[in-house]
Amino acid sequence: MLIALDLDGTVWDHHDISSLYPPFKRVSPLKIQDSRGAEVTLRKHVRDFLQWARNSGHIITTLSWNDFQVAYQALRAFEIDAYFHYLVIEPHPRKDKMLYYLLRRIKAERGVEIKPQDIVYIDDRDIHIREIWENIGPVRFIQFGIDVKCFLEIIPLLSA
Q1: Cα distances (angstroms) measured from residue 82 to each of 7, 62, 76, 138
Q2: Phi and psi at residue 42, to the nearest 5°
Q3: Does the N terminus or the C terminus of the chain have fewer Cβ atoms within 10 A?
Q4: What's the CATH number of domain 2-159, 3.40.50.150, 2.60.120.560, 3.40.50.1000, 3.40.50.450?
Q5: Contact 42, 145 (CB under 8 A)
Q6: Structural domain boundaries of the chain?
Q7: Half-sphere exposure of 128 (CA within 13 A, CB side)
Q8: What does the DSSP 8-state code read for residue 43?
Q9: 48-57 pLDDT, tens digit each
């Protein structure tokens, strides 16, 4: 299974990490701060979820509309970048195109063709799902904050 995670508002509480000013420094286990003092909080149990997903053999990717360098530095500051097999972070809103090219890359690199029904897309907003369904197919969508409030709630949904 491919698990695609949005970042802003999903993995962390900030809604536009690209608007911040690295370098980031870790101020607590779940909090980083940019060079101007803006704080970003990692959602509780993200690490537990990512560890479970890796241990379960899932392919994990980001699927984020952001500036790559800023988002990557935040992932590194939280020390969660290594959990992801792929970092799909691009400065445009077309997550369907991001996902399309990722699926082609996975097929080329791993020889694995991932069907839409084997994709789980997790995002706090549903604004991209119509284009994904139209251009990729019926991926499973979990809306963070609506369908689940905590990353630990996702595990039984994907284990069933």
Answers
A1: 15, 12, 8, 28
A2: -75, 140
A3: C
A4: 3.40.50.1000
A5: no
A6: 2-159
A7: 26
A8: P
A9: 999 999 999 9
